[in-house]
Structure formats: structure tokens, C-alpha cells
Design goal:
binds magnesium ion; binds inosinic acid; about 25% strand; Rossmann fold; about 400 residues
Length: about 400
């Protein structure tokens, strides 16, 4: 899926081109993530149209579209059908919410239109096969020439029927999907792509601690161990700066002066990062949030995804130890903000003034955990894991 580009005006009049990414969607009480793209859907309908055309060279089939869900698939399929055809509609009902009730009722009937015809039933999705069974028995009582079934989606694991479906767009696992005509309690039919239901809760960690405390090093181990996405504010900033994005240029002016970047810039960058991974197991936020406003913004963002921060883990290291660590790192990393002792000390002042309040913020939520950040790297990883395992 291609994210839409939009132009946003920054607070201080600078225009920044951002990727406005809307990946996770909410329908009623559930969250859904992108699953099948428009291009894949088009390819599948085209394949079916060609297969049917190949089988019906010398006759005019009647497509009988099963409402409501199949209307978009049917529209694409029939538009791509190269020969003559007729079209009609039936309406059945069997579903409420996320699972089939097994009760199938006929609400709209085609009996008087299909006499002697070759009927192709157009279904959005075959799940348990109850609906299909009902359709097959309905047509078996009518005097038609032949019956074929075309289904855009087929949940082979859930299918309980005997009929071998003639034309299948895609086989999908037994997961609830929406979009391309399919609904969740009537919402989502209009989505041009298919989304699948978001499963499982994320484990979201804020790795907290002064510059040089070892957040980045530890995050590398933890992301492997817990299969999380590591979002390092530093890495995200440097990426934006290197690629001279609007936000990157803006952030540069602050970083060069040894200051923290204003909240709204940071939040916009981080938000895009989070939304790039709608299917993640969770995130490790490293270097973010740094202010109470950012922490509140992060809560809001995760809330929009139906998620929360599970824990804020602070790596505690003495300031003088840290100044030395950073100066050492500056010698090899080439990071300008690690080479000047005044700038480093300025970062600690900023940290103590603004960031330390986060301890209260997360303590207030019962989510703050302090871990001793001095010692062997593997030993510190163990200490962190002990906390994470309880979250
Ligand atoms: P079946 O009778 O269990 O095969 O279910 C068929 C009908 O259930 C379809 O026509 C859909 O209306 C609905 N359905 C099955 N699976 C899904 C899904 O994943 N999303 C939305 N609707 C579904
Ligand atoms: Mg249906």
C-alpha cells in the first residue's frame, strides 16, 4: 500500500512534507491491519475473469451475485469479463459479528430468472461453507443448465463442505478480514484494500535513562529476545537529517546547539515510525519520551492503536561515569554531540530538568522500574529481562 503524501505546515512556518500513514484502522471495537493490496485484488479478479471466459467461450453465463459482501468483487469481475454475460442478485444472511451463526435465510430470490441458464454464483468469501451449501441446494431445485461457484476468498481451513469451488481468487487462513465488500457488523465494506483483524496485545517498553546509559545496546538484545521493533529517537533523527526531510532539517538546528528537539517534531517522526509496523509484537522506545508532553502523546498514539505502554524501565548510571562513556563514544562514533564535554553536560542538565519528571509520570501509572545500568552488558540484559518478563 502506498502511503498518501500530505503537506503539513510546521508551527514555526516551515513546510514539512510528511508521509501521512494510516495503517491501522478501527471498526466498532476492533482494530484491523492491512493485509491484501488493491493490486493483488485486481490480479486475482482478472485471473478469475479469464478462467471463466475460457470455460464459457460459446455461451452467455449469468452471474448471480451474493449480496451484500460480493458487490465489489462482482463489479470488478464482471467489468473484466470479456464476453457477453447476464447479471442478477441473491441475498442470504448467516453472519453476525465475527463468527457464523450457521443460520442461512434467503432474503432475495432469483428462481424465476435462471431457467435453462449457466449460473455462476459470485461469492465474496467461503468460510464454513454453510452459505454455499444453502446456495447449492437452492439451485439444485431449479431447472438450470449448470452451476459454477466463483469466490474471491476461500478459507480452506474453516471450510466444512464437499463442493469443490470452481473459481477461487485467493486462499486465506482462517482469519477475519474486512474491506473489498466484506464487513465487520456492516462497517469496512468500502475499504479498497483488505484488512485483517489485529490479534494479540503488544508489549510496549519505554527504555529510559540518561544519554550514554546503554539504552541502545540493551535495546538491540531485547528486540531480538522479545521480537520487538526498536525505535531509537537518535536513529530516527539521524535518518531524517541525513535524508534532509523537512522534519530532519528542523531537528538539525536544535541538535547542533546541543538542545532537545521540540516535542511536536519528535512526536511526528515517531508516530510515522510506529505506524509503519502495524503488525508488530510491540515496540521498544529508546530516547522517547523525554518530556511529560511526549509521554502523554505516546499514550494517546498507543491508545489509538488499542495499546498501552506496559512498562518504563530506567537504566540508572552515575553522571560522571556517563560523561566519560560519552566522550569515549564520541571518539569513534563521529557524533558531534558526543565530542564536546560542555554539550554533553548540557544534555544532562536538560535530562535532569525535563526528563526526570517522567519517573513520576510512569510511577503514577504503576509502570516505572529502575534497573542498575552498571556492569557487564549481558548481566544488565538479564536484569532488564527479569522486569520485562513480569510485564
Ligand atoms: P460461511 O457460510 O461460513 O461460508 O460464511 C460465508 C459468509 O460469511 C460470507 O458471505 C461473509 O458474509 C461472511 N464471512 C465469512 N468470513 C468473513 C470474514 O472474514 N469477514 C467478513 N465476513 C465474513
Ligand atoms: Mg456474503
Amino acid at each position: 500500500m502506498l502511503p498518501a503524501r500530505s503537506i503539513l505546515k510546521g508551527k514555526n512556518g516551515i513546510f514539512a512534507t510528511l508521509l501521512a500513514i494510516q495503517l491501522v484502522i478501527k471498526l466498532h471495537d476492533k482494530y484491523f491491519v492491512p493485509y491484501i493490496s488493491e493490486a493483488q485484488l485486481q490480479q486475482a479478479t482478472q485471473n478469475i475473469a479469464q478462467q471463466i471466459a475460457g470455460d464459457f467461450k460459446d455461451e452467455t453465463p449469468m452471474f448471480v451475485v451474493v449480496l451484500n459482501g460480493a458487490f465489489i468483487f462482482a463489479s470488478d469481475l464482471i467489468k473484466q469479463y470479456p464476453g457477453n454475460c447476464e447479471v442478477s442478485f441473491v441475498k442470504l444472511s448467516s453472519y453476525y459479528g465475527l463468527s457464523s451463526t450457521g443460520i442461512v435465510k434467503t432474503l432475495l430470490d432469483v428462481s424465476d430468472q435462471v431457467e435453462g441458464k449457466s449460473v455462476i454464483v459470485v461469492e465474496d468469501i467461503v468460510d464454513t461453507g454453510n452459505t454455499l451449501e444453502e446456495l447449492i441446494s437452492m439451485f439444485s431445485n431449479l431447472n438450470i443448465k449448470q452451476l459454477k461457484i466463483a469466490a474471491m476468498f476461500y478459507k480452506s481451513e474453516a471450510y466444512d463442505g464437499d463442493y469443490n469451488i470452481d473459481y477461487v481468487g485467493m486462499e486465506i487462513p482462517d482469519k477475519f478480514i474486512v474491506g473489498y465488500g466484506l464487513d465487520y457488523n456492516e462497517l469496512g465494506r468500502n475499504l479498497p484494500e483488505v484488512y485483517k483483524i489485529k490479534e494479540g496485545e503488544m508489549r510496549n517498553l519505554v527504555l529510559f535513562g540518561p544519554p550514554g546509559a546503554g539504552k541502545g545496546t540493551q535495546a538491540e538484545f531485547l528486540k531480538e529476545k522479545y521480537n520487538l521493533i526498536h525505535i531509537s529517537t537518535g536513529v530516527v533523527f539521524r535518518y531524517n537529517i541525513k535524508n534532509e526531510t523537512g522534519l530532519g532539517k528542523l531537528a538539525r538546528t536544535y541538535i547542533d546547539a546541543g538542545d532537545l528537539v521540540p516535542d511536536e517534531v519528535t512526536i511526528d517522526m515517531l508516530k510515522d515510525e510506529v505506524l509503519k509496523h502495524p503488525d508488530a509484537n510491540g515496540f521498544i522506545f529508546d530516547g522517547f519520551p523525554r518530556t511529560e508532553a511526549q509521554a502523554a502523546a505516546l499514550d494517546e498514539l498507543l491508545d489509538q492503536l488499542g495499546e498501552t505502554v506496559n512498562g518504563c524501565i530506567a537504566l540508572e548510571v552515575d553522571t560522571e561515569v556517563l560523561v566519560q562513556r560519552l566522550l569515549e563514544r564520541g571518539k569513534t562514533s563521529g557524533r558531534s554531540d558526543d565530542q564536546d564535554e560542555d554539550k554533553i553536560r548540557n544534555r544532562f542538565i536538560e535530562y535532569n530538568e525535563k526528563t526526570a519528571v517522567l519517573k513520576d509520570y510512569y510511577t503514577g501509572q504503576g509502570k516505572f522500574f529502575a534497573v542498575d545500568g552498571v556492569g557487564e552488558i549481558s548481566e544488565i540484559t538479564k536484569r532488564l529481562s527479569k522486569v520485562i518478563d513480569t510485564l
